Each structure stands twice: as C-alpha cells, then as structure tokens.
Amino acid sequence: MIHDAAICESRQIGKGTNVWAFVHVLPGAVIGEDCNICDHVFIENDVVVGNRVTIKSGVQLWDGLRVSDDVFIGPNATFTNDKNPRSKQRLEKFLQTTIHEGASIGANATILPGVSIGRGAMVGAGAVVTRSVPPYTVVVGNPARISGYAGDNRQTEAVKNTSILLPSPQVIAGKAVLYPLTLAVDMRGSLAAMEFPSQCPFTPKRLFIVHSVPNKSVRGEHAHRTCQQFLIAVSGSITASVDDGKSRGSVVLDSPERGLYIPPLTWGSQYQFSSDAALLVLASHEYDDADYVRTYADFLKISNL
Question: Which of 98, 109, 153, 275 has its CA 20 to 30 A from that of 122?
Fold first, then answer.
C-alpha cells in the first residue's frame, strides 16, 4: 500500500510493505517485504532496507545506510553519513552504516556514520552512537555506552560478588561457571588462592592482565575454538558477559575471591571497567590467532554445528 499523499519514486518496494502519507522514497532505494514506513519519512537513493522493518515518523535514511531484516527504527532517530559535512560539498562516496538483523533504534537516537549496530542490539532513546555496537548489547547515553545485554535469550541477572556468598560454583550461562577461590583472612590482610584443577578446570599456559581500560570501551568480543580462559578481577570491577549461542549471562567481577571460567566456543565480552580495574586472565593455550572466532555471525555458525 502506497498512500496517495506519499511520493514513492522507487519501483523496488517489496510485497506487503506500507508506505504512509508524506513519505518520500527516491528512485534508487530498495525496500523489502512487509515493512511499515510511517508518515514523514525520507529515504535517499543508496539505501537498502530489509524485510519486516518498521520505520517510525520523522526519520531520514541517507545514502550509505543498510538496514537488515526485522529492524525497528524509532521516531526521529537520526542517521548521518558524513563525519565532516560542509554546505555544497558532497562526498563522492558516503560511509556505510549497517543496522543488523533484529536491532532496535530508540526515539531521537543519533547514529554517526560508518558504524555497525550488531544483531539484536538495542540503542536507547536519545543515545549518541559514536562507535560500533556489539551484538545483543543495550547502549545508552552520550556517547553511548553498554548498560547490559538483550535479545531472545535474555541474560541472567548480573551477580555482584561482594553481595553474595559463593560456597560452590555457580553456572552463569552454558558451561561458563563462576568459581569461588580459597580465602584466608587474618589481621595481616586477605589472601585468595587457587588450585588446579579443583578450582580452575585447566592448567594455564599463558597469563595476561587487562588494565587502564576506559569505561566506555569493550574488551573481548570474541570466542575461542579450543582455548579455555579463567577471569579474575584482582582490582576494581568489571562486568563480564558470556554467550554459548543458546543462553546468555553476565556477572560483575569485583573481588579476587572469585573467578569466571569461560570454556571454548563461548562468546565473551567485558565492559564497564572501573578506573582502578585490573583483570587477570589465565589461558589454557599459548596465543594462536587462528584459534579466535572474531565475528558473532561466524560464532553462531560454529557453535550450532
């Protein structure tokens, strides 16, 4: 259905798509099936919109935008395609911005050019997205920062270590487990110890420490094919998220008394680093770039085999 008050110059409009009043679609635009394009939307030439996409009122889709299936774009969300715009100066080619499957963009959010909004991610209302958003993350604020994870498999409630007793291992998601370490406390201070393999399922061959991470940054964002990892916050606090392709969970690591075991074929990411955070990582294997799975799409393919 194309409303009588709409200007739809494109012939590439999918079956079942509704184009409502005062929408203007330029000739080169491609729009998929079963979409809902609400009043007062403008869609430029070099724009591709997938199937079952909802675009609410007051949105402009500029050249270089790629919108995948099942995306929701809230009212007055703003997209950009030029980092240094000048009047009467048009780029020969615009940066490509990609909104992946199932993502949602909140009302009045601003998306800077060249970024990618990951599958199932949710951009909060009024957020200003200055860098790519990982899959299934919830980002809010200016600049947008991760506040949690969302999706069909919603994360379990984050466990704050200092607020609970952990007498035994606790499953976070899939085979990722939060382990208690041995704690000795006396008037001289506290000591946290770990033995192998009773408290860590593998004997490490590599150790590294992640520190001085800006709060807005995200670490990890990959899986391993064979390598196992064990994460301990030796200082400060870090939120760690794990995903085995079927379930997702997160935990706040803020004490050296507990550690998170991450098995192979588990997507892991760490965010919300405090200014004094230092994350100790034990690895079962020496560094091997071929062992990394660096895109979430590849991870889903491998994990579902």
Answer: 275
> pTM for the whole thing?
0.78
Q: Spell out the per-residue pLDDT of the chain, length 305, in tens.
A: 999 999 999 999 999 999 999 999 999 999 999 999 999 999 999 999 999 999 999 999 999 999 999 999 999 999 999 999 999 988 888 999 999 999 999 999 999 999 999 999 999 999 999 999 988 889 999 999 888 887 544 444 445 544 445 668 888 888 999 998 888 888 889 898 888 888 899 999 999 999 999 877 788 989 999 999 999 999 999 999 999 988 888 899 999 989 999 999 999 999 889 999 999 999 999 999 999 999 888 998 998 86
Q: CA of 188: how far to CAs of 105, 185, 286, in Å?
A: 52, 8, 36
Q: 140 φ, ψ to 5°?
A: -140, 160
Instruction: Catalogue all structural domains in the chain, each as residue range(s) with its CATH number.
Output: 1-152 (2.160.10.10), 159-303 (2.60.120.10)
Q: Cα–chain-centroid distance for residue 273? A: 16
Q: Which residue has the tokens 């798509």?
A: 17
CB 113 within 8 A of CB 97: yes
| Nearest of 82, 107, 67, 136 to residue 300 by alpha carbon | 136
Q: Give the separation between CA 104 and CA 14, rounded to whole angstroms.
A: 21
Residues near 107 by beta carbon (within 8 Å), at least 6 away in sequence: 56, 74, 75, 76, 77, 125, 126
**Catalytic (active site) residue 40:** no
Strand, coil or helix: what is 290?
A: helix
Pick the catalytic residue from 3, 24, 40, 222.
Answer: 222
